[in-house]
Each structure stands twice: as structure tokens, then as C-alpha cells.
Amino acid sequence: MTEILQGSLCGRLDPRETPAAAIAMIDAEGTVVGWTTTAQRLVGYPAAEVVGQPISTVLPLTRRTLREWSSTEQCLARGGWSGTSTVRHRDGHALKASLRISLLWGQDGEIHWLVSGTDIASLSPMATTGWVRDSLLTRSPIGIVVRDRDLRCAWANDAMEQQDGVPCDQRLGRRLTDARPDTEAERLEGVMRQVLDSGVTTVREYRAWPSADPRREHAIAASYFCLQDADGQAMGVCCMSVDLTAAQRARERLAILSEASTRIGNSLDVMQIGQELADIAVPLLADYVNVDLAESIQFGEAPFARIGPSDDRRPVLRRAGLASIHPGVPESPWARGELVAVPPNSPFAKVLSSGRSHLEPVLDGSPGTWFDHDPDRARTMRESGMHSLMVVPIRTRRAFLGTAVFIRTEEPTPFQEDDLLLAEGLVSRTALSLDNARRYARERSAALTLQRNLLPPRSVQGTAIETASRYLPADVDNGVGGDWFDVIPLSGARTALVVGDVVGHGINAAATMGRLRTAVHTLADLDLPPDELLTHLDDTVRRMAEEDADSHDPSRVTGATCLYAVYDPVTRKCTMARAGHPPPAVIDPHGTVTFPHLPTGTPLGVGLGIPFEAVELELPEGSQLALYTDGLIESRDHDIDAGMMRLCGTLAHPGRSLEGLCSSVIETLPTQSPCDDVTLLIARTHALSPSQTTCWDLPSDPAVVSHARTLVTRRLAQWGLERLEASTQLIISELVTNAVRHATGPIRLRLIRHQVLTCEVTDTSDTLPRLRHACTSDEGGRGLYIVAQLCRRHGARCLTSGGKTVWAEQELDPGS
Length: 816
Prior knowledge:
alpha+beta
């Protein structure tokens, strides 16, 4: 039974596979004075044949050996001997047994020996290996007490005092209830009487408070054997006990750490992970726990490095976790989410500077300690009755993430070293989860920043057009995708609407999308017609594909579709072209939804050389355009036609706001976690009134320049823009002069007053002017330079019908 207890203690032997030990008691001369039925089963000798005989009958032990052991300091110090030996069976064969010979003390210093043994052949292979290799019985002290029929202690070894705190001289000659007058002792004496009456070995567990650790309850497992005399009658009971407290604590620590593995780190929110640590530690380990984390890790930034003792810098910590056995957590001066001070010379500061945990079994809050520098925390700790403290750094290999504080208030037992080991194990698991969450937050923040910088504002309000949009990436973890949309202001109060879709998802698609969006902006600044712009964009995508092929990067994606539309509020005409993209939806002011016939075009980068075609539509005032990507109308369970019908039904609500309309469309998606990126851009068109535009046809004559200035001056006066008269006259003079000098045919002059004042001069020449620096001796070449100094923005665009338009924009309020 000793082997069973020891096997259970060490976690190496299965009690169900280990037989009960044979027990024999011998005196100092080596004569057997007590025998058990388990000993008879092992060697075959009944008590009548062994009691009173030398132990050498069955064991290779002599009186001389025992006398030498009795005088050996090493043997006395160890309380006996353990190992393997050969035992003779009654029928003559030999047994290889694992033996332990323990030294017992009786009254007046008498010596007896208790022999326990088990047949190694009856043990499992794993158990046998453990016995031979580690000699497990030697590694843990076993308490032994032999009591007579009246249950008075006749013999005991030194290990018993370590278990229950009762000295040997106070134990010998007394019953258990004399040394421990409690109900536990009465119960154990009842067990011993049953063993004496029945002769059956019994195992029981009881509690003790040894003098070496009086504040902590110890769990003791005891095995009770009936000792028989030569007549086979019960002469007493032998109790062999093992302190299982360390094993139980180890199992409890493993259970807590195992539970922590499942409960900590289920989220990628650093604040939630800090709270999970606090929740699992209370009340299993502490009465109150707080977790303070570096504020920077919440945003994915690098944690702080170790703070030196002489360093004046103090990290900014934020309270992430709080838990207490008391409702409302009255022990914490700071609420969860608040910034926490780290006073100098406190255990918290020392932990951050040394990187080592701080254990203070008995908290010293007397004057002259660190409490003097932190009165708020000191007052709270005294009022809450905090008496024991552990501070554990939360850190990775290179930096600190924060601290975890464990405190006991109601539990009277102070923290011990094994409690600190458990706390460090919990914190270590938490640190790993926190570092993973920090890295995720950093990557997500970078991805969101990239996406935010690549996409325009969610809504745009203007005199010509107002928009609202929604973006729902398939990569919900990082929040990035390959779809994009854009609202680009053009000259002449026009606006370009763009929606595109890059093949693939995630960060690689987003990077490609950024390159394409930049290319579209560059081409849009050239005021190219939609079909011509898509042609140039197609060349760009093919060039990108060639570059990626040369780089041998399989993760790069360049295939894309795109829809490009230009709306002119003066003519209420919208010109659009698409490259393999779904057609736009047009909603008239009455709520009728149509999908205009628009040539599909090939996707960008395919390289078939098929030209793109543009279509021009005239839109009534208050019409709406819905541009989207295929993720909005396609799903695994429905085809495109069903998606377009669903979209059509949702858009047919003319009185709804653009934001509300966007939300309604997104809510109709079959799932909120789409398999493809979803982008929606809805624009409501407005027309400029005739009073906001003025147009004149002028002859190509140098004398017309003066007449043009007069016409412009009158119109500015009617619009109340006299403050722009001087600059506008100079701009018109330069633009009309250039048209007369470099072109033939009639000249058209147009003024548009919307968010800015636009001056346009159209002629029949296809040659675009360019800005250059004129030399001192040059007679011309300064016109566009002068225009550039007077306006906010200027440029030129070719017309599809031939000719060009040169334009310049001025702020309506020159001081803005």
C-alpha cells in the first residue's frame, strides 16, 4: 500500500496496477515480531511460521547488518533504506522485490524496523522502470506509526512529526485522540478498530496542520495494516502515511493552468484578455487581482522596454482587468480602462525595472515604506485588509506588456513560493495571448490605415452631385479588400464616379487597388473621356502584370474590372464606360430603376485589344446612379439575375436619403460575412440652373479680347463677384489671346459659377498648351504662367468632337 500511495503521489504508478505491499515488523536483533496477510501472500509464509524467527528466513538480512545500520548516521538520518533485493518464497523460488526498511522508535529509545515490499514482477513495465530508476520510496518521506490493540502508539518514525507536527515523545504511549482531541482523530481511530477486527487493509485520507506550515491545511493519505502475532491474532495496527499536499497543489496548479489555456486568449482584444486573467485568478488564487497593461499595445504599438532604476521615465499603464471576491471591486482606486499611476520605489516600479516578480507574504504598510508615496493606493489597501501581495511582470522576451497584481484579503494564508509559480504560469500564458493580440492589432491598424487612405470619404456633398457609399470587405479580420470607389472632381463642374474590383481579397488585393486608384486619378486629371481612360488603365494593368510576373511573386494580383462615369451638371449628361464590370443602376426621380445598356468591355489586363465603348445618358434633375461591385449581387446560393432583382427592388424608394438607401441595400445581403468584397456608391445628380452659366461665341479676331473682357465684367457684376473682376479679366485676356493666336475658327467663352468660378475658352485646335518658363528676350510664352498665378487650378482637355477647352478655376472668396 505504501507503493500505491507513493505511485499516486508521483503520478507515475497507477494504483489499479500496483499490488498492496507486504508489511513485516522486526526488532533490533532482526527477529520478526509482526506479520501481515499481505506478507503471507508475497512469500507464502503464515504468521505462525515467521513470527519469532530471524528475518533472514525470507530476506538476506542479518543481525549484524541491522546493528551496523542502527549505528550509521546516514541510515539514521534517512530513517532506513530502500532498494531492490531477492526474497525467498516458501516453496523455494526467489522473488525480486522492491523493499523499504524504515527505522522506528519506541519508548526509552528502543529501535524496531518496519519492512515493506512488493514483487517487481507483479508491477506494470512502467511501474517497474519507475521503481528501479528513481527509487520513488526514498524521494518522499513516509510516516509510520505502530499502535497496540488499545490503539496506543508503540513505535513511530521521525517522518510522522513532519506530517502532523506531533513530536515523537508526545506520541509514544498515547492514543491519537490524546494528541489530537478532535472529530478527525475519532474517525481515524474508528478505522483502526475496523482493521484490527477484520484484518483488511484500509486507506483513508485526513487533514493535518504540521508545525512547519501551521497556516496551511495538509492532506495526508494513510494506509492501515493489521499486524499479527505468532498465533495469527491481531497484535496491533500499522499506519503508513504520505503527505499529498504538494501533489494536490501541483494537480491544482495544472488544473488551473489547463483551464487558463481554454479561457485566456479567446479574444484578440487586449483589454478582454487582461480581464480573463483576473477572472480566472479570483478566487482560485487570490481575493483581488488587477491587470495593468501598457497603453501602447492596445493600438498594436511596441511595448515599453525595461525601465532602469535611475530612469525618470514612467510607462503609461491602463487598467485592463479587475476581479474581486467583493462585489463592485472596492479594492481598486481605478476603474477598468483608466490610466494607472506607477509610484517610484514601489513594488510595481521595481518589477518593471528588474523584470522579476515580487512576493511579499506579509504586506508591510507601516510608515517609511513605499505607501508614503502612494497615499490613494495605501488607503485602499488598508481599508480592504490586504495582507499578502504578489506582483508579476507581463512580458515577452524583449519588452514589458504590463503587470499583474495578486492580493489576499479574506484568505488568511499568505502567498507562498508555489503560489508565485502558479501566478507566473498564468501570466506567462496571458503574455503570449497579449503579444498575439498586439501583433494582430498592429497589422489590422496598418491595414485599416492603408484602406482608409486609399478610399475617399464615405459621403461627398456638392452643388453638382451628392454621394453616399458602403464598403464591406470579405477579409473581415483585417478590414481590407480589392474593391475601390472614387468621386473625382473634374473641370467645368463635372464629377467622375469610379467603381473597381481587383481580383482576390486581403492586403495584396488592397495594395494593387491602391496602385490602380492612383492611376485612375492621374488619368482623370488629364480629362480623358471614359473609354479612352479605360484604354490607358488597361495598359497600366497589363504592365503591372508583367512586372509581377518578373518578380515571381504568386501572391500579387492585377486582374480587375472597372466602371468610369463622368456627369456634367450643365448639360445633365452622364458619359460612362465599363471594363468587364456590372452595369450601373439608374433611378429616376419617380423611383423607376433601370440598368442601361452599356457595352460590357473586357476586364482590365486581359490584353485582347478590344476597344472600350462609351455611352452618353441624359439624366433628369434628382436622378440617382448606383455603382457597385459583383459582391453585392453575387453569392454562392444565388445567381447575378436574382441579385440584380433584389438590388432593383431595394433602390426603388426615391424619397429615402442616400445613407438610408445604402444601409437598406447592405441589409438585403444574404449574409453579413460575404464571400466577396462588397462596394456600393450611390450618387444623386443635380443640374446647374441657367443663371449659373454664361456662354458667348466670339470670332477669331485680336480685337475680340477687349470685348470679351467687357462681357465678363458685366456678368461678374450681375453675380456679385466684382472682387474677382481684375483677376478674371487678366485670365480671359490671356486665354482668348492664345486661342486667337494659335487656332482658327470661332472661339467659345464660358463662365460657370458653382463652388468655384470657372473660366473656359474653347477653340478648334487639338494642340494642348503647356506651361513653360520664358526667357528674358522672349516676346511670348508667359500667358499660362500668369494664369497659373491667378487661379486655384487650371488645365486643358480635348473634345471628342474635335478641338480643345482651356480652363481656369478661381475661389469665389479670394480670402479662403
